[in-house]
Amino acid sequence: MLQKLHPLLICALLIALGVVNTFAYAPYQYSFMPLLTLPVLALSIWQAQSPKQAAWFGWSYGVGWFGLGVSWVHVSIATFGGMPLVFSLGIMAALVAYLALFPALAAWLAAFWLKHRDCLSCRIYLGMGYRAKTFVPGYSLVFHGYPWDTLKQQVI
What is the DSSP string of 103-139? Predict the structure, then answer.
């Protein structure tokens, strides 16, 4: 299905699906959203031409997901921190780009293993990659204690 689409169009679709995935969290609580969006991400990873392309697909999904998911941080920085709008938006763009690296890494790993192994191990490694994606930001030295906007909150 996705094979006939241009990769940039797939990236745009995944950004939109990442935005839709944000509605799984408060205040909306449509917890079924990841069940609709993640299969499209997995399908795009499976049909990617290379692990690099799969990483771009994962990064695009992450940009949409975190772009809307952490938008409240901009309000905190600009309103309560008093930072000028240009700097606040720059900080937010850097934060979103950084956080989108984790789904990109999970997608790259899954595509790499898919290329070298069977489909069952790809599904296992995609799950492990997403588990690492939810673990690393919360325990990294840069963003220690990043507890919001994770899929594990929706599963539990």
Answer: HHHHHHHHHHHHHHS-HHHHHHHHHHHHHHHHHHHHH
- DSSP conformation class of 23: G
pTM, whole model, 2 decimals? 0.80
Please, where are the H alpha helices in 6-118? Answer: 7-21, 33-46, 51-69, 71-75, 85-99, 101-116
Dist. CA 67–CA 50, nearest whole Å: 25
Q: How does 102-125 read in b/e, with b if 16+ C-beta sit within 10 Å?
A: bbbbbbbbbbbbbeeeeeeebeeb
Segments in the chain below pLDDT 50: 141, 144-145, 155-156
Which bin fits 145, alpha (ψ -120 to 50), beta or left (φ > 0)? left
Phi and psi at residue 150, in whole multiples of 5°?
Answer: -110, 150
The closest of 86, 91, 124 to 106, measured between CA atoms, is 124
Residue 142 CA to residue 136 CA, distance in Å, equals 10
Going by C-beta distance under 8 Å and a sequence separation of 6 or more, which residues neighbour residue 149? 22, 25, 65, 66, 69, 70
How many C-beta neighbours within 10 Å does residue 78 have?
17
